[in-house]
Design a protein that fits this description.
The protein is an alpha+beta fold. The chain folds into two domains: 3-194 and 306-387, 3-Layer(aba) Sandwich (Aminopeptidase), CATH 3.40.630.10; 196-303, 2-Layer Sandwich (Alpha-Beta Plaits), CATH 3.30.70.360. The protein contains twelve helices and 18 strands. Strand 4 (113-115) and strand 5 (118-120) form a beta hairpin. The two termini are 13 Å apart.
């Protein structure tokens, strides 16, 4: 099989690819709207089944259902430990998500648009184009008779931290030889490392009082939180790749009332798994100075870092070699954002991320995909699948 054959097959299906991206974008699917995400799941499930894939809906109550799509032959669970063929035929896991950060109705102010070499619309880059690219990659491999065992998992809660899908992601990854993540590329690069992500809530309870009549009876929760913000921000260590950001604070009722409560939301990023315990110990050790106030801390590290491991480097080198056959000079990158690839990488599964669309503006009004890269990037995804 030549990679140019894959490219030609994808090019012949480019209009279908773009039409499906439009249909999926116009099926809005915010994380917090289960019926909306399920509509998107039903749409993709129909496309996959029309391609001969086997699908399974993992039903959820609060979030959208999780969609498991299996391509290629099923494998026997009893494989020889010494058979190189059996090892080669282990499944590959592709990871994607159907949920977006955009609320229902965003299409009215941010409608689908194809112009000037761009596809624009809510969720087009992150990551509905990547979902369709995966289906087209499988279609091309199927036509060439090169479809290997692979599972495409599309979750409904990635944008909110994957609270219900993580267990399924890790369960499927345990039986796979590699994980390929359909998140957008970093510029033109694939991602070989991501930071781990933590989310903490600090809540200070003080004593309310009239600020003019009874000031000394009050104990300000806001003042205590201000001290804590300085302390927490000091945990940032750029040299170690640790950042701590207090992004949201709320507290108090009126200016003439000593505030009885204050809440802060804290974002933590770590480059190395071994730093998680260090950060958690530091946050657990926080104390208020005023003994009349009380501090409560909740949360923790919810995505381990995706570290650059030998297995991931091997995957990237394969992708780079195949990209060169398409005339692409593929580079690798690291990013501070997290994805579901963080989970698989932390399990020791070789994981390559950023294999979706090329574009810019994710989570922003200018979100778009560059059409000039769609065919080649889809062909490259298919080639990596075939060569694993």
């Amino acid at each position: 099989m030549r990679i140019t054959d894959l490219e030609q097959l994808v090019a012949a299906a480019e209009e279908r690819l773009k039409d499906r991206v439009r249909e999926l974008v116009e099926t809005e699917s915010p994380s917090d709207d289960k019926p909306a995400v399920d509509r998107a799941g039903t749409l993709v499930q129909g496309w996959a089944e029309a391609q001969g894939a086997r699908t399974r809906r993992h039903r959820q109550r609060e979030y959208g259902d999780l969609l498991e799509i299996r391509f290629g032959p099923e494998l026997s669970r009893t494989r020889s430990r010494t058979s190189s063929r059996a090892i080669h035929q282990r499944r590959v896991l592709l990871l994607g998500h159907l949920d977006t950060v955009w609320p229902l109705g965003t299409l009215h102010k941010m409608p689908w648009k194809e112009a000037n070499g761009r596809l624009s619309g809510p969720g087009v880059l992150d990551m509905k184009a990547g979902v369709v690219m995966a289906l087209e990659a499988f279609a091309a491999l199927q036509k060439l008779g090169a479809l290997r065992p692979a599972t495409l998992l599309l979750v409904s809660d990635e944008e909110v931290g994957s609270p219900v899908s993580r267990t399924l992601t890790e369960s499927l990854a345990a039986d796979c030889e590699a994980a390929l993540v359909l998140e957008p590329a970093q510029g033109l690069a694939y991602k070989t490392a991501r930071k781990g992500v933590g989310a903490y809530t600090l809540r200070v309870e003080g004593v309310g009082a009239h600020a003019g009549v009874d000031f000394e009876a009050g104990h300000s929760a806001v003042r205590e939180m201000a001290r804590l913000v300085e302390t927490v921000s000091g945990f940032t260590d750029p040299a170690r790749g640790i950042t701590v950001n207090v992004g949201v604070i709320s507290g108090g009722t009126r200016s003439n009332v000593v505030p009885a409560e204050c809440v802060a939301e804290v974002d933590v990023r770590i480059r190395r798994a071994r730093d998680a315990e260090r950060v958690e110990r530091s946050i657990a050790a926080l104390k208020v100075l005023d003994p009349a106030c009380r501090l409560t801390v909740t949360g923790g590290i919810n995505r381990p870092p995706m570290e650059r491991t030998p297995g991931t480097v091997k995957l990237f080198r394969l992708a780079r070699k195949l990209a060169a056959q398409l005339g692409l000079d593929l580079e690798e990158a690291a990013t501070g954002g997290g994805s579901d690839g963080n989970f698989t990488a932390a399990m020791g599964v070789p994981t390559l991320d950023g294999m979706g669309a090329v574009g810019a503006g994710a989570h922003a009004a200018q979100e778009h995909v560059l059409t000039q890269h769609l065919v080649q990037r889809t062909a490259l995804l298919a080639a990596v699948l075939a060569q694993l």
